[in-house]
Amino acid sequence: MRFCYMELAESDMQQTIKIRDMADKIRDMAEINQYRKELRDKIIAYAMREFHQRGVKAVKMDEISRGLRVSKRTVYEIFGDKEELLLAGMKIERAEYKARVEEYALAHARNVMDVIGYIYRLQMERNQQVGVVFYEEIHRMPRILEFLKEEHDKEYDDSMRFFQAGVDEGYFRKDVNFEVVYESSRICMSEMMHQQLYKRFTMQELFDNFTLIMIRGFCTDRGLELLDKAIGQL
What whole-number distance in Å separates Cα of residue 63 and Cα of residue 37? Predict the structure, then answer.
């Protein structure tokens, strides 16, 4: 019986050691995953700053690894190529942009015109941060173009609800087919990029003389008054 108890005690101890070892491995894996996530975020943030300022082609993966003091192999383990890195960055930027607009709309905006004014301010900030070369290059990348199209398709319902809210508030005209507005604006913006108008005009000029003019076209007199006030304060 004594040997039996000793064997059971030894078995329990071995089981406890195994459980502790497993817990240590799980904790180590969690720490590794957290480190890789933080490193991934740092790579994206660093790369997107460089992409915006200098263009995608000018920024080499070697340069990114040196700038962050990590090996190029590590960068390639996380991102298979530069376009994959760019796509990850654009997804994060898009999600952050949507979150900022939604937070403003829920917490600060009094009406749709306030939201338009806020979006205009965000667009001005982006136009100052992003160089022409960036726009030129991303519109030659199939995965990026596919992502932009998917984003446009997903935003359709939200855009229609926003337009309807503007009509209900009395700031958008009732006689406008906003589906036509939405689709035609997408086609026109795509064609402006295809024709490389950003080489002749700044992105701010394109935004002011196309998007802003289009918005003015479907605003009521009340909407125009608030729009002019919002833009004039910037």
Answer: 20
> Which parts of the chain register pLDDT below 50?
28
CA-CA distance, 147 to 230, in Å (whole number)?
31
Residue type, position 29, single letter: M
Residue with tokens 């890195």: 85
What pLDDT digit, counting tens, does each position of 141-154 carry?
999 999 998 998 88
The tokens for 12 are: 């329990």
Rg (CA), the chain: 26
- Measured between its terminal Cα atoms, the distance across the chain in Å is 87
pTM > 0.85? no
Q: What would the pLDDT profile of 21-46 be if each residue is shown by its tens digit?
A: 565 555 545 555 788 899 999 999 99
3-state secondary structure the chain: CHHHHHHHHHHHHHHHHHHHHHHHHHHHHHHHHHHHHHHHHHHHHHHHHHHHHHCCCCCCHHHHHHHHCCCHHHHHHHCCCHHHHHHHHHHHHHHHHHHHHHHHHHHCCCCHHHHHHHHHHHHHHHHHHCCHHHHHHHCCCHHHHHHHHHHHHHCHHHHHHHHHHHHHHCCECCCCCHHHHHHHHHHHHHHHHHCCHHHCCCHHHHHHHHHHHHHHHCECHHHHHHHHHHHHCC
